[in-house]
# Entry
Amino acid sequence: MPKKVLVVYYTQTGQLREIVKSVTAPLEADPEIHLAFEELKPRPLFPFPWTSDEFFQAMPECVKGIPCELEPLTVDAQEDFDLIIVAWQPWFLSPSIPFHAFFQLESTKKLLNGKPVITLIACRNMWYMAQTRIKQYIQEAGGRLAGNILLYDKAPNLLSLVSIIRWMFKGKRDRYMKIIPPAGVSQADIDGAIRYGLIIRESLQEAGFDNLQPKLVSAGAVDVRTGLVMIEKRGIVMFRLWAGFILKKGPYGAKSRLLRVRLFKYYLLAVLYLVSPFATLLYQIIKPFRGKTIKKQISLYQSA
# Structure
């Protein structure tokens, strides 16, 4: 019997679809593996490019795990898959809203129950707190996280911040003013992700996933930047406070909360451009004294 693999993903820009295609290419080429793809489709669709207000309106729902409505899944919740790959993106240090919605569906819980799951992340550079929440969702559904693959924008932090804002709000991803690199995961990294598919195919052929994550890590699948972990742990606390503050004025898209949304926007931009460079410098100063903590964090986020 062929091995059956379900790939669930959501994409606005098309980048994650391209990453999924690269990773799953070795699986698709194998006649002994049957692939099913499920693209999540919010109702209504989230815009791309975003306006500034539309984007920051999404923060409270992301942080608090409030789902959107999804088009019905095409996959049969009773179908028995050998592996499920969840390809997702973080928004505001949290899973994107469509994935909050996906994991809260009763059909998802049936699909994941007792199944090995691989998470495939595409992001700018912050994913740690969001992956912790995804792990919780998988565990609550009765699934088992068997592996994690990360692809991220490797440009310097402040430069990638400029490029991603330009991409999100203007739809322009190309190099800008010579010094701003193209936004998103590099094409070389996307193309190179095929090597992870080869490792996954090997595990499928062996019908065992116990050693999958160490093999993925050895292939470079998870790069843990511990300085960003420190920033995220502090940032998510403030995001939760802001989310509660904004939600008191109404649900997603409500004009009544727009003032608070804009206040959050200015707060976040100030933190990113003014505070985060100092936080990064502070981390470099204290890094030599945090050896045990750093090793623990690397082990935690590289494990499945």
